[in-house]
Model the fold of this input.
Amino acid sequence: MITAKHEKWLSEIQKADARLRAFPDGNGRPNIHKPRAAAMRWAIALSQKQLDKLSDGDFSNLQRELACFRRFELKEPVLPGFVEPAPWPSREDINNTQQWIRGILDNVSSRSDNTVVYKIPEREWHLVWIISDRRWGQFYTEKEIEGTSRVHELFDLVREHVDKILRCKAADCQKIFLRDRSNQEFCSTRCQWRTGQRTYKDIPPERYGKRGRRMTSTPTRLTPTPKEKNSGQPKKSKERAHGTKRRTR
Done:
């Protein structure tokens, strides 16, 4: 029997699904036509969050987003029917998930010769960085593995976008991001512009502004402007004096 509890649960899940599908990129632009890429950006953002500094509302949204992705994996949410809705992920569960995502993203973004191994029931995945081709290779072996994992959905996301996960080239950023283009090296246009100002245009460090913009010095005027000259004099009235006549032609 579907109760009000089920309907409330579905409403929260649908809102979380909409947030996952429209998660923005580094420039704040969402792309609803690529929900898997948006979910990958959400996972990267989850690895960079400070859970102890989140407000109650933000942490509640994070619980629902993680539960939504685990259960439906960006498929249309449906009512659980006669089954009671599962409880939202606990803080410990989210913290463990965050640590796992952070570790695998660090390994993938470093692009070293290390092999990333992930085990799920009856299958063992290997992600290998091929230095000569500068790309990731993937293979798996069929074997019986005991136990289950709670993050295999997130690992599937990483496998799909493993060649697009990079670390920002800006020296003062170094954040992990998901690139949209094959030649993208920065997480946002701000990092790209700031690095260009500091590196490619040879601007000395003492001329950097707070946001990386070039500081320009204002020249000192030696001669006063007409406005400054007349500042101490009484303002002339534009009205004609009383009793004077306007000259006619």
The first helix runs from residue 4 to 21. The helical segments are 4-21, 35-47, 56-72, 91-110, 152-160, 189-200, 226-229. Confidence is low (pLDDT under 50) at residues 142-148.
